[in-house]
Amino acid sequence: MSDGPGRHDRQGSTPPPGYRPPRPPAEAGPAQPAPQPEPTSPASPQAAAPGADPLAGAAPGPEEYARQQQAAAADSQKPGRQKSPVPSFLKAVRPHHVLGLVLSHLTFYLTLLLLSVVTVIGLIAGVALEAEAAGAPGEFTQVADELELGGALAALTLPFQLVGVWLFGQLRFTVDVPADYQQFLGSSTMEFLRVFAPNLLVVLLATVLAVWAGRMWARRFPGAGLSDLPWSARLLLGTAVSLLSALLTLLVTFALAFRTSFTEGGETVRMVAGAAGAALFFGALALFLLITVLLCASPALLSRARGAADSVLPSASRMPRVLTVHAVVIGVPVLAYATIMMALEVGAVGPLSFLFWASTVAVSGFVLLNAGALTAAMGTTGFGGGLAESETLYLWTTGLRWWEVTLAVILGLVALGLASLTWAVVRRPAATGVQKVLSWLTLPVLYGVTGAVLTVFGQLRIDFDAGGFTGGGGTFGPAWWTFLILLLVGVVIELLARFAFGPAAKRLPRPLRRLLGGRAAAAV
């Protein structure tokens, strides 16, 4: 009997049309749990997302992750999705980082500008008071009135030029050459006066205020300040902002140069007084970079820098405390005495122009009271022959009276003793034999460097040119061997600190130790 067509189809050797045998399970180890709420078989087509490997489970393996990254990179190269032009190390820079640098640089410049405005107002007011007291305008007052130096134009432009001079620029006075003399001189303009008179005191004050303002701003963003950026970002950002600040300083000084005109022999002559130039640009750039470095350096970097300096010259990082005490003990009485004497001998213009001459007097007093010397030189050239004069001034040859010299010597000795006591408080004992030898060089070397800095930036130079008929110039400032004198002063302080004030420093009360050496010294 036949089984019938149905049974033949179920048990026959030929599968029916459309039949597909079941797929054997993969031997790839235990499958990862699928994220679906209901488990599915690894072999089921519904267990894998479209385009994914059904044998790899729900979590992508290393090969799948690499393929995804390659796909993302290829996708970013499409015309609609261009790669960001910002380098990766700059992506951490935020607006408050830029604003912090701009705020510190602006504080620096505005401090100088405010002090220069006070100085110009003091000069103008002092001259006016002296002219009124004399009953008639003096020679300088007549020239100032003719050139409109006492008007609103001077009050607007001269402070910016004074800032340029304080930032190591050179103030140049140029005038138009009359037509009758242009062929003789070979030029239509003549630079008849040039002044170089940097002001170390106001620059130091402005730098301290700028760093303080930048750090106060950084405290508003804990953990995200300038010092937390990658070093490459700090380098690029700090350099760019400093260059821009120096360039803006140069442009402002040039745009606001003092320009006026006067009549001479029936011909109008124009005069320009400005401090813009290469010296101003590089001087401002150096100071802006210094502020930037102090703000961008992390505490760890500063600590390493101090450690590196102390490894070469033991306790070198504590030497500024000694120099500060030494300079303040000399500078404050010298400036107070100079102000009183100028008020008595020169009049109101002396005290009112304090910021104009204070830096020169402070530097000169520090050098003289440390047994140094000043050099005053003047020379002229012209048709009548050349003349050159130079004089070396010591404390006892400056024209001071005997009691003034005596008080100056006593003040210098007191300052030397307090500096030695401060060094005995703050210096750390050397750990190794090499450092014990190097510790004798710390103060002499650093005091010698200080003398070189005062010699270079403590000079006052004036050059003049009267149209080729005569010319010349003069200089006044520390003598060239000042660095040697201060090097010897460093040796004396080292000896006094070791053998005279060493035992006394250990018995000082804690408040006095804190006053001389700060918290670190008070804790020793």
In short:
The protein has 524 residues and is α+β, with helices and mostly antiparallel strands.
What's the Cα radius of gyration? Answer: 38 Å
Measured by DSSP, the beta-strand proportion falls in 5-15%
What order do the SSEs take from the amino end to the carboxyl end, as H and E?
A: HHHHHEHEHHEEHHHHHEEHHHEEHHH
Briefly note the structural class of the backbone: alpha+beta
Specify the overall morphology: flat
Question: How would you describe the overall organization of this protein?
Answer:
- With 524 residues, the chain is an alpha+beta fold.
- It folds into 2 domains: 207 residues, no CATH class; 213 residues, no CATH class.
- Helix content is 57%, strand content 11%.
- Strands 3-4-1-2-7-8-5-6 form an 8-stranded antiparallel β-sheet.
- Strand 5 and strand 6 form a beta hairpin.
- The longest helix is centred in the first third of the chain and has 40 residues.
- The radius of gyration is 38 Å and the shape is flat.
- The N and C termini lie far apart (117 Å).
- The N terminus is likely disordered.
Write the layout of secondary structure elements.
Layout: H1 5-11, H2 62-76, H3 95-134, H4 139-146, H5 152-166, E1 171-176, H6 179-185, E2 189-196, H7 200-218, H8 231-255, E3 258-264, E4 267-274, H9 278-296, H10 299-312, H11 319-345, H12 349-352, H13 354-368, E5 374-382, E6 387-393, H14 402-426, H15 433-438, H16 442-457, E7 460-465, E8 470-478, H17 482-499, H18 502-506, H19 510-523
Antiparallel strand pairs: 1-2, 1-4, 2-7, 3-4, 5-6, 5-8, 7-8
